[in-house]
Design brief:
This protein has about 230 residues and is mainly alpha-helical. It is built from 9 helices and no strands. The longest helix is centred in the last third of the chain and has 55 residues. The chain is globular and about 60 Å long. It starts with a helix and ends in a 5-residue tail after the last helix.
């Protein structure tokens, strides 16, 4: 338990970077979006309440967890912490972080609702399509995708430490190839309508909670498989 707590403290050795940078980045994104909505008077425009600016928070948190592996893992191993301890702690921090961010986003979305979109009709913290009834449900809807991106960040960090730049480029090229191949295959099969119908028939809980959680579990398993052979 002491080793787990030690590894957990390592994750927050620079709290202003780990916690401050993501909120700074998304606050700037929010300020820009708010200014655009206020100056352009977009309140009554169809579909104008949507903005993807909150993704700045998700992407920044993912980068933070990439760095948690690439920068902290060698130091943790230098302190004689095992790979298993480091991974277990990282997983626990990821779960707590995802829930905390989800709860914060749900609270900010509730404030937005109470203030008529921050006074300008802006739906920023829970964009259209990601709105759920109730604070707890909204926290899960906002937090589960965060967990998936955190797992992706940990996985990318493991690839960087295990295989170096060649592994990172291989991951990028491989991902583009797989995604591009799937797009070509679906287009060839003329199955876009069926795929769209499938997503339309799924509930918000399935799409925003179930699928991201499943993705996070798969990525975590792959990350652990690579981490087991990482050297300092």
């Amino acid at each position: 338990m002491n080793r787990v707590l030690t590894a957990a403290r390592l994750q927050f050795v620079h709290p202003l970077v780990v916690l401050g940078i993501p909120w700074l980045v998304v606050s700037i994104s929010f300020a820009i979006n708010w200014a655009v909505w206020a100056l352009a008077d977009l309140r009554d425009q169809p579909g104008a309440g949507f903005t993807g600016g909150v993704m700045a928070l998700y992407i920044t948190v993912m980068v933070v967890f990439v760095q948690s592996v690439t920068q902290l893992l060698p130091f943790a191993m230098g302190l004689s912490l095992s790979r298993r301890t480091f991974f277990t702690t990282t997983a626990l921090v990821a779960l707590v972080s995802a829930f905390g961010y989800g709860l914060a986003l749900a609270g900010l979305a509730a404030i937005g609702d109470a203030t008529d979109g921050w006074g300008v009709g802006l739906s920023f913290w829970a964009p259209i399509g990601m709105r759920a009834d109730g604070l707890a449900m909204q926290a899960l809807v906002s937090g589960a995708p965060m967990l998936a991106l955190i797992a992706a960040g940990v996985g990318m960090g493991v690839v960087q430490k295990r295989w170096g730049p060649a592994g990172v480029w291989g991951l990028i090229i491989g991902s583009i190839t797989v995604v591009g191949g799937l797009v070509v295959l679906v287009t060839w099969l003329r199955a876009w309508n069926e795929i769209g119908a499938w997503f339309t028939d799924r509930s918000l809980a399935t799409l925003a909670i179930g699928l991201p959680t499943a993705v996070a579990l798969v990525l975590a398993a792959l990350a652990w498989g690579g981490l087991r052979r990482v050297v300092p």
